[in-house]
Structure formats: C-alpha cells, structure tokens
Amino acid sequence: xxxxxxxxxxxxxxxxxxxxxxxxxxxxxxxDNALSQPxxxxxxxxxxxxxxxxxxxxxxxxxxxxxxxGRLRIEIKPKLPGTPLAQLLRYAYRLRDVxxxxxxxxxxTKHGFHDLIIMMLANEVEELLHRGVARRYVPITDNIExxxxxxxxxxxxxxxxxxxxxxxCRYFDRHINWHLNQTLRAGLVLAAQMTEDxxxxxxxxxxxxxxxxxxxxxxxxGDDVDRAERGLTRLTAASASALSLIRLxxxxxxxxxxPQNELARSPGFLFDMNRFFQRxxxxxxxxxxxxxxxxxxxxxxxxxxxxxxxxxxxxxxPTPRPDFALFQxxxxxxxxxxxxxxxWSRDFPAGWLYQLSMYALAAxxxxxxxxxxxxxxxxxxxxxxxxxxxxGLGNGSAAVIIRPVELVTxxxxxxxxxxxxxxxxxxxxxxxxxxxxxxxxGANGKAV
Length: 448
Description:
Helix content: 25-40%
Structural class: alpha+beta
Number of domains: 4
Strand content: 15-25%
Number of strands: 16
Shape: globular
Radius of gyration: 28 Å
Number of helices: 13
C-alpha cells in the first residue's frame, strides 16, 4: 500500500518536471527531505533530483520504474504501450510466447513497469506448474527393508554382517526440493514483495505455495539465478524464460535499493531501457542480416595512443567500443550505436554526436549511424556532416546518420503469429538500419 505521507510525481522517460508541472515539488520541506537522502546522489545517473529556488526539479533518463526518496515517490513510465512492449521484451530476452492478460494497462498506468515483468513471470511459472514441478534424481544412502539400487556390501561387513531386517543401500530418488525449484519459488516471493497490486501479489504468493515441499530461500542472489541457468538441461529448458524474468526483477533493485532486512520491501525498482534496446537490436540485426554481419561492442584499437616520451604515469589509452560493428566478409565497414531516446521529438546531448563522430572518423566508410528508439511514425533519417572548418568538405570529412527505429513497427514485425510471413519485411528493415549510404553535400553544405 502507498504510504499516506508520500508525495507522488509521475513522468515519462527522458522527461523533466518541476514545480510548474507538479505543484507538490514546490514544497521546500519535501525538497529538503529528498535532497538530504543518500539515495539521491546514488540515483544521479538514473534519476536526476536537484533543488532550485522554486523547489525540486526531476529529470528522467532511460530508466523506467519507481523509486522512493524520502517522502517523495517518483514513477517513470515507458512511452511504449504494454502490448508491443511485452512483445519486444519477449523477443529481446528470448522468452516464450505465453499470453499476458491485460498487458496493455500493466506497464505503469497504475503501479509500475515492474508489474508487467511480474505478470509475465506469473504466467510463465503457472505454465511450468501445469506441466508438473521439475524433479531431479538425488543420491540417497539409507538402511531399508526392501533393497533397491546398490547394496553396500562393505558397510555390511563393517557392521559385522546382517544384524537386522534392513540393508544399507545407495539409490537415486526423484525430489522437487532442488536448486532450480528453490530459485523459482524465491523469484515469486521477490516479485510479490515488489508489487503493490494486491491481486498480483496474491497470485505470486499462491504460485509460490504450489511448490509445496520446496525449501524457501531467505533471500535471492544473482548467483542463485546464474547457477540455476547453468544447470538447465533438455528436460528443464522450459524454465529458462522464468529465470530470465527473475533476473530482470532482481536487476531492477539496482544500486541503493537493497532492503535493510529480508522482510522489508525495497524502496525502488528501476529498469534500464537503453540496455534493453541494445539487446533488442542486437538479436534483430544478428538474425536478419544476410550478406553482412555485425559484432557487438567491438573494440576500436589504436584510435588513441599516448606518445612514447609523453606518458610519465604510464596510462593506458582508452579503447572506444561502439555497440555494433558492421562487417562485409572479414572487412570492417562502419560502426553503429543504439540510443534509447526519441530524438525526433527530443534533442540529444552533444556528447552523443562527438562519440558518433569519432566512430565515423575511425571507419573505412567515414560514416557511423546512431539508431534511436522512436514512437513517432513521422520520424525521418537525419545526417550530420563532420568536417574541418579550415578545409570545408576536403580532407577529414565524415558523416553521422541519425536513424529512427520505430518501435511499434518493430513489434509488429516480431509478432509470433506472423513471424514466418514477415521475414522479407524484417530483412528489408535491417538492411535499411545498417545502411551507411549518405547524401553528398555541395560546397554550400546543401545535399546534392
């Protein structure tokens, strides 16, 4: 339940709000309380909370979700509607296509983006339980009346022969209380603690109770999910999607969000849409490029180098790593970077252009591309020419292409019901996304 003393501020990704948009932020007592919290500084790169003469100003980034800072609750909602967002999440994280009820209203209109993830997890686990709780053979050594497995003759000899109507045996039995099921149950308990939707919380608790004799972990750690994923086999592969969702929920707790004890609910859950968008594009490009290929986070070496006689601290020169490197056969052609921000409707930091300009200057084609997430159907490609002011379009010229990725269209192309029939459209979209063809400019800077 929402604490009555909390002041709630709602905004969308990359949006900025202040006292003019939200009168509650003009409360200086509230502002002093929020700015005095250690969490405020820890959140700086995720949610920027700053004071002004009028009150508080809050700037969102690519993180969506919810966080409590003192007496202030900040809710950051994704712009993408629930149904296409769920479709893209499934594709990016290789989740099974299990129907999500009412997902059009789940991602934040009432409680938070994390509720969509929790709803998807509940559907996944419900499907797993419908098939039957996964069991594993575990070795057991015991004295039993009806011998089974291997009789431990050595043990009989050490006991001085058969003295009772039981024999020591070593056999294997199928049990449900093993690490995979313990992790799934712990993930459901974590999900129940994260949501404020009463029905969703009750559903998660009921599903956790259906694991019966499976031991309940006092707390879930990232290593638990790692171990469960490493232990998946052909017989338990169906649990991979549920584990991926549990990892997402665990990752949303993030820096400064750990509960002070196992029973306390965390004050915030934030999900990085930029990392999600990069992962989404990576799979889409890898699967649909034909004549060319990409490599993720390919290091550009020898771009920077300290002079041999001018590096007294023996520093290591930085190595840029674009999100994607485009190859034709074995030859590098250019670099692309993914940015989760609708640049068509909002400008972008100059640092992004400087970054892409460096990638362009390092590419044989002298071109780089910024692929940004857009909700604007009218968004069009833009081009920024990079040239020396002393030489105009002569030596040293390069170009940065600023290219929209329309997310609703992408979700439609990835609809599992039409996945086979839309293959040609997907391949065409990928070719358009990785194209490094530019518009030539004349002496006056106009395209020709």
